[in-house]
Amino acid sequence: MLQAAIRAPEGNPAGLAFLYRRQFELCKVQRGETIALVSDLTTRREYIQAAFAAADELGADVYEMCVNSVPSWTKVGVPTIGKCKGTLEAVRAADIIVIFHVPLFTKWLKEVMNGGTRVLMIIDAPDDLDHLMSPKGLKDAVKHAHKRLSQTKKVHVVSDAGTDFTYTCGEYPVMSQWGYADEPGHFDHWGAGHVHTFPNEGTANGTVVFQPGDIIILPYCRYVQDPVRLDIRDGFVTKIDGGLDAKLMRDWLNDNKSSPDDRDPFAVSHLGWGLNPQSLWYGIALNGDEPERSRAAARTFPGNFLFSTGPNSQGGGKRNTRGHYDVPMRDCTVVLDNEVVIEKGRLVDPAMVVEREAR
Ligand SMILES: [Fe+2]
């Protein structure tokens, strides 16, 4: 498999070790802890070197486990750990796993987290790791959003573009990421800053309209060019209307059916919103459409409503389809029970607003 050319970072490559040290400090890496780096053949070698240097500086023990499958960005749920004998036992024994591909929606990840191991995922480009690193106050804001969403029974999302969509929650846990893995059993993604949960089975109903400027971050990493209108009935997308972007969505979801009557790719999946002020909506316009530049940023810019379809096994559900579509939407108003927390794409709950740090 050929790897796409990677643009040279703007920052000093030698600075990566300092950056990793700051990140490991946020993750509360302690002297004598064991860090397992889980890499694959596409992992940037300088990330491994920086992680080794940072671990040494902090007095932690560290090793690299390079696995023999390369989960692509669009195929989540690939079990990179556990097939080779001893690998699951090894990572379970670590205090913190730093993983350089997407482990979400795999069984092994849940097992490891249940044992208390912290998990940090690093899948973004060096400049973005620097720019997106969790700013002061983000964890508190995310924890507040997490609590609010945990107390919520019904969510209503509307937009001037025509979205009018409701779902109830409580069946699945709320999950949140604040950019570092500092608590036992916590999964996080360097650059993150968002909350989400899965709708109760069969309760998502209404209309969702993607408008130009919304982002199809998975699988295409592109801005929506023309409106897409989704009819949603009892938890599933039943109709996709529009132009090119509608065709792209229909074909992706249909091609990922496991059988002609498989509806799982069309199930409404995780729903939530972003809070990281370091994340820029216009990153794709600025930096190009290489996914490595946008994985964290596109999902976490403040006030986006992140709509998705496909798997829910990460939340404890049974769907593990690869028909996964992730769409951060702009300009939506999000109402939790009767309280507006996002108004036309702007966070209005002051406890969710974090100031951007100049970097
Ligand atoms: Fe997703």
Automatic annotation (TrEMBL):
InterPro entries: M29_Exopeptidase, NicX. Keywords: Dioxygenase, Metal-binding, Oxidoreductase. GO terms for molecular function: dioxygenase activity; metal ion binding. The keyword Oxidoreductase applies. The keyword Acetylation does not apply. Pfam families: NicX (PF26233). SUPFAM superfamilies: Thermophilic metalloprotease-like (SSF144052). This is 2,5-dihydroxypyridine 5,6-dioxygenase. It comes from Bradyrhizobium erythrophlei. The lineage of its organism: Bacteria, Pseudomonadati, Pseudomonadota, Alphaproteobacteria, Hyphomicrobiales.
